[in-house]
Amino acid sequence: MALFEHVEYDGHEQVVFCHDKVTGLKAIIAVHDTTMGPALGGTRMWNYANSEEALTDVLRLSRGMTYKSALAGLPLGGGKAVIIGDAKKDKSEAFFKAYGRFINSLGGKYITAEDVNIRTADIDIVSTETAFVAGTASKAGDPSPHTAEGTYLGLKAAAKHAFGNESLQGVRIAVQGLGAVGYDFAEYCAKEGAKLIVADVNEEAVAKAVAELGAEAVSVDDIYSVECDVYAPCALGATINNNTLKVMKAKVIAGSANNQLATPAHDKIVKEMGILYAPDYVINAGGVIHVCSEAANFSLEDTGKRVKAIYGTLDKIFTRAKNEDRPTGEIADEMAREILAKKLAEKMA
Ligand SMILES: NC(=O)c1ccc[n+]([C@@H]2O[C@H](COP(=O)([O-])OP(=O)(O)OC[C@H]3O[C@@H](n4cnc5c(N)ncnc54)[C@H](O)[C@@H]3O)[C@@H](O)[C@H]2O)c1
């Protein structure tokens, strides 16, 4: 398994392979870039088919965190960790304590938090072995409300560019996923007079949105093809793919889900279809801003301002993408790299 030659290797500063003999823990921690500050990013637990798959995921996700935090203006670098295992069977107190000791051994270069299949309770155990954690129950807590607010504001910036008006009054929004983020996001939109079309595998959440937000319910398969102005993916990754784009009527894609594009090529494909895509890691940065408030001691007011700034960041991305006739995801990556290059130059001066 090559590292420096790996297709997802992007000058990562440090990649640590961890194995604890007692609990069987196997994890990979990737520190992509610490130019802006310590590398913060969640830990994902997944039953990867092999360690190659886990390495690919952690290299890609950690680079994403560098770009996300740079564009959110945070004093943080990018990192991520993956635990290779079955979240239903392999978790134990000793397991997460061992993991905490590995994180501690990096001396603060990497700060962890929750991600897929890792709960606040797991992070609380990790925090008994290391201070380099964020998002513990007793401190910052649930980031979802800030993610929802940032996604709503990001959608308004997209509406301004795509429809000539940032108001969501009468705008038809197809919301996929009414979980912690999706429901709050839908509520913000409904309050502004948007017409919601919703889908979720959780029927209770759908019934609540119908009763409380006046939403129209459709099946999870039909959400891609409904007549709407906006598609808001707030559940799964990779839903912007060749199959869904064949039937999609939306002119804006703006939602909280991570890794929305099935492949990097879909950035260009959506542009060519005349769809305005709000790059996922920019619009959903409310969560990392929230978690960072704990790691960097931001006041509540400062955290709120940073979440509101997502509107302005997306406004800049959309303007530049239009002026240069380029895909929005490509512009976001480029803007993040410019921020990093500037900081690096300052450090070296
Ligand atoms: N929570 C945060 O602060 C945060 C931050 C950044 C990004 N995100 C991303 O936003 C998305 C939503 O996060 P969340 O915290 O609300 O998760 P969640 O688990 O609370 O909600 C996800 C919702 O999607 C539904 N769902 C699952 N499969 C579905 C399907 N096939 N069709 C329709 N609905 C389906 C679930 O039933 C659930 O209601 C995820 O992609 C997550 O990675 C979340």
From TrEMBL:
Family annotation (CDD domains): NAD_bind_Leu_Phe_Val_DH
Keywords on record: NAD, Nucleotide-binding, Oxidoreductase
Residues covered by the Glutamate/phenylalanine/leucine/valine/L-tryptophan dehydrogenase C-terminal domain: 141-347
A Gene Ontology molecular function term of the record: oxidoreductase activity, acting on the CH-NH2 group of donors, NAD or NADP as acceptor
Biological process terms in GO annotation: amino acid metabolic process
Pfam families (UniProt xref): ELFV_dehydrog, ELFV_dehydrog_N
Signal peptide residue numbers: none
SUPFAM superfamilies found in the cross-reference section: Aminoacid dehydrogenase-like, N-terminal domain (SSF53223), NAD(P)-binding Rossmann-fold domains (SSF51735)
Domain of life: Bacteria
Active site: 80
Residues that hold NAD(+) according to the record: 177-182
Role description: Catalyzes the reversible oxidative deamination of glutamate to alpha-ketoglutarate and ammonia.
Family: Belongs to the Glu/Leu/Phe/Val dehydrogenases family.
Protein name per its UniProtKB record: Amino acid dehydrogenase
UniProt source species: Aliidiomarina iranensis
